[in-house]
């Protein structure tokens, strides 16, 4: 097996310097390899020695100055002040902070790139309308470079400029001025940044220009793409005999100039003139026939699930101590699904865990959205969804009791909006979450206080908890920097601050480091520089991701970048290729995963680097395709509840021993679905409270029934018939009565229609129209009316004999009598009626009686009305009660008396009396079946299942559903 790169470095250090290495500086691009090189040095020397000094390149070069590093936010605020000062000087309106933020990010990035590559700022920002001037201004440039500049300015050579070009040129003119003023501002504050340090060192202007001479030797390990400042310094220090360079490369891509992976190291060796301390590089890749496993997954997140299966087969606890393993994320957005899919094992995460993908960001975003409403817009109510999101959030830690109380009260009152002053989340880890701010200046201090409260509640143990703690601390740092910046800008609105906070914290991520030498290492490809692992698992190796097809935002157009040798997309490709190829120099077990599904974020193709290696090297690529399981349609196991043991005991005790009354709706529920009857009336499984965003027919029905009772109550005590024309007085009271009843049902005292929310307004409109239709129908059809019974839900209980297992028992029936009246129609015919109001899709028409008196009846309303009529007649002693159904939608066309569609059977006179007897026999038959232990509770496969049915989950997979909804 090939030796790891850092092992070769350690051996060369021992051979070259012996034990005298304490005054050597070893410099890396990042911190990660330091631990590994230390381990290899210990293994190579085999005894205690004085350690060399280790640095990252930025730490090392920062020794050249005493100025402190200015944070990115500090630089942004400086730039914002300088930019607006220039605008004011030009007589223009200053820009808003939030608007300038994304522009500032690009400007600062460009300034940094120009410093790293030592580009003359005044020259690159020259405004050249006459392209002939390019030949004079850039005589020292090659013809190719001049052509790039000419192509860029060609679009500006026309006489008039577009509005976009004018805005661009306006900013372009200011950029060299902003560059100089920013540098002066930083210097006046005794602050600096890394690009400035690089440039000043390369140009010989650093405070401590000779700082590197503090070391006997400087070893630069694993560098690849050098900027011009680094290249100049490295060559200079090599010429002074102070610098050594260890390049990690393979002859396969280094010697072949067509191989992009070797681009930068070739440039370092051939153009810059640096010397590789390890000598000639071997051709490992070109001579390896190692197996490489390539996995095509069915979706992005499926890559992590596939990896889980591979890891469980590949890695054991014993291997952790003997061999190294790493997951490399070409697509770093896979970190969260990866963490959720890993088998139980020790891991160490180097790549940043993004705040925006964590539950913490959701909580912060919710708080800012709430403050936008209650503190900026001064709203006294917030949407219920905001409160529901908070009490359901895992970090809010609202007690189950308080959560249930809030949900129950909100559901009962159907509160789509919540009074902020009435919100009580005192049991939460953040009890003041919904407290309005007194002043905009309190926004960031209050947010910092929220972070402190969260830090106190988060346990320090556990992988995810540690990540959350680190993210909170990083967020707190950014907020404190913002607060310092805001302090110099005067009063800022809450909305303004929130906009900038969202932008500033969106890029936060936190590296979670465990033991770098044990367990499974998780990192991005960039963090894997210099490191070698026995087992490598690369996730997200898709074309378009490896390499990326887009570069960072910039104001420096591509032609100018090419002219000045600044990084372009091709450079990014070369670096990605190198980071990928180098793992094939050492690892003996390589697994590469890519998403094979084509969608808006995926090409569905493996990276071209894989195809290149497959074609150009002896490596054996073994391809695995994730198989989509084929689900053949089979009849799923039906949910059947036998009537035995505790279930039979519950049924029998409830209705026969304790004599719980059986209602008409319970009876028709049994006819439509015995399983639903069990769930609802035996198991007593209740629907959880919820806030409905859809219209609720049951509440509409309640409002209508209550209103009809109150409107007709004045007639209840009248012994004689009342002319129906007197119902005009009731018609005039309908609107106010409906408003009052809606207030009662939602536990709120409404005074005017303006206080109703949108759905309540709809309910008011429908209810008033229905009630007016009912009253108008009575006025049109009848001369006079006498109310006999009205909404009686107390007196109508009836013992009904049935046979249970050969023994006579009785079951108590229960009927709510909406209305019993006696009317005289326009022909002078007197009728005794029982009236039921319906607001759904019920109708008086039916197809035939066989389908009515049957399981899964096709006219539930008819059976329920006959049920009420039977109970009433038995209790009152009255006979000849005629069942009527008031369905507002069809009253004018179909009337209110039940009949078949052909009109040959109408439920009145002798036919009605015959069918009442048929109903009693049918009722007894069905109830005896209900209490037959041999007939289990099961769902009727022909029953209509409505989308709003709360019990759908219990039988949705066991029957063929017929989805329909009552309108």
Automatic annotation (TrEMBL):
User: Any idea where the PD-(D/E)XK endonuclease-like domain is?
Assistant: 662-941
Q: Which Pfam families match?
A: PDDEXK_1 (PF12705)
Matching Gene3D superfamilies: 3.90.320.10
Q: What domain of life does the native source organism fall in?
A: Bacteria
Record-given protein name: PD-(D/E)XK nuclease superfamily protein
Protein source organism: Sphingobacterium lactis
Top-level taxonomy: Bacteria, Pseudomonadati, Bacteroidota, Sphingobacteriia, Sphingobacteriales
